[in-house]
């Protein structure tokens, strides 16, 4: 491999996408009340982060129209001043930072209590006393009330035409593609044996490298179908019977210019839109829209079940 003509950077990105985990419980019971009219905005929507996560963030701060394409400038304000919990329209709780008894938290009937999660449910346990406490979920799942991710958008020519956008493909930079350098296979596996693979959880490592002249290697094709990732732009671990077969594929790419270039041909057929509204933008839009009031019997168990995590994905693959 060291004698190959062209340099290649392979980046193994961990995509969490589980398929089968057996649970002894089901917690999908969600009480939903009738539709409510959208809020008549007479004052900014006030969002309280009831967590230590933002204690060092200048408070308060406004959600600006320039950073959100789904809410108007000045329509929401975010802070972590717990003394204003009674005035807040929405209160966000991060389970890893709940170091208090939720039963002591005051609330009024119009507030939205949000269960916000950045990581897979295998990373933390359920907080105590969360039964019938939360009204909304905010996480990476497409099924969340307020979904967020590091997602960008790829559009082919037909899709761009439907949105009346000029088609400007990403294209291939031949100099970057064939720049001579030491061959490197960077496997960001680390503690993968202890890392669960969960549905819809796409690491930021993929999104941060998605437009580079590199070949991402993702765990599961099942996740990619939900993310809109262009076909043939990545390699999927589960497509190979064993790690040996995967390494042989990488070696073949290192030794074959034609095979390597073929992995980048998709760039001539897709354009890239860096659209990823922040969770605050999506949260503001959700509260402003005032969806039907709901109450989760146990929001953690619902999140756990919908994530459908698989702990032993890597062990099973390496055992082949």
From TrEMBL:
It is found in: Golgi apparatus, Golgi stack membrane. It comes from the Eukaryota. This is Fucosyltransferase. Belongs to the glycosyltransferase 10 family. Keywords: Glycoprotein, Glycosyltransferase, Golgi apparatus, Membrane, Signal-anchor, Transferase, Transmembrane, Transmembrane helix. The keyword Ribosomal protein does not apply. Residues 197-299 form the Fucosyltransferase C-terminal domain. Pathway: Protein modification; protein glycosylation. GO terms for molecular function: fucosyltransferase activity. It is a single-pass type II membrane protein. Residues 45-148 form the Fucosyltransferase N-terminal domain. Its main location: Golgi. The chain crosses the membrane at residues 6-25. It is an enzyme of class 2 (transferase). Its EC number is 2.4.1.-. GO terms for cellular component: Golgi cisterna membrane. InterPro entries: Glyco_tran_10_C, Glyco_tran_10_N, Glyco_trans_10, GT10-like_C_sf.
């Amino acid at each position: 491999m060291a004698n190959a003509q062209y340099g290649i950077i392979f980046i193994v990105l961990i995509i969490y996408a589980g398929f089968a985990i057996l649970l002894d419980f089901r917690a999908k019971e969600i009480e939903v009340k009738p539709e409510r009219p959208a809020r008549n905005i007479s004052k900014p929507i006030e969002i309280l982060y009831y967590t230590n996560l933002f204690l060092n963030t200048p408070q308060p701060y406004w959600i600006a129209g320039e950073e959100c394409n789904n809410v108007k400038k000045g329509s929401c304000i975010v802070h972590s001043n717990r003394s204003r919990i009674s005035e807040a329209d929405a209160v966000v709780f991060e389970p890893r930072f709940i170091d208090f008894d939720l039963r002591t938290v005051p609330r009024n009937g119009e507030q939205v209590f949000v269960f916000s999660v950045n990581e897979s449910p295998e990373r933390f346990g359920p907080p105590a006393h969360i039964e019938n406490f939360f009204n909304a979920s905010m996480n990476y799942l497409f099924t969340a009330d307020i979904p967020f991710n590091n997602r960008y958008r790829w559009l082919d020519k037909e899709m761009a035409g439907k949105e009346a956008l000029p088609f400007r493909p990403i294209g291939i930079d031949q100099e970057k593609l064939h720049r001579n350098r030491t061959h490197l296979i960077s496997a960001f596996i680390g503690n993968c044996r202890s890392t669960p693979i969960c549905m819809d959880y796409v690491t930021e490592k993929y999104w941060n490298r998605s437009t580079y002249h590199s070949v991402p290697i993702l765990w599961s094709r099942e996740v990619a179908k939900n993310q809109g990732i262009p076909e043939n732009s990545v390699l999927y671990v589960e497509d190979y019977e064993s790690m040996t077969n995967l390494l042989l594929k990488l070696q073949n790419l290192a030794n074959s210019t034609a095979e390597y270039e073929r992995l980048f041909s998709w760039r001539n057929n897709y354009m890239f839109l860096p659209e990823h509204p922040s969770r605050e933008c999506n949260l503001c839009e959700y509260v402003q829209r005032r969806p039907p009031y709901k109450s989760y019997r146990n929001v953690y168990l619902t999140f756990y079940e919908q994530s459908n995590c698989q702990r032993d994905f890597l062990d099973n693959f390496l055992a082949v």
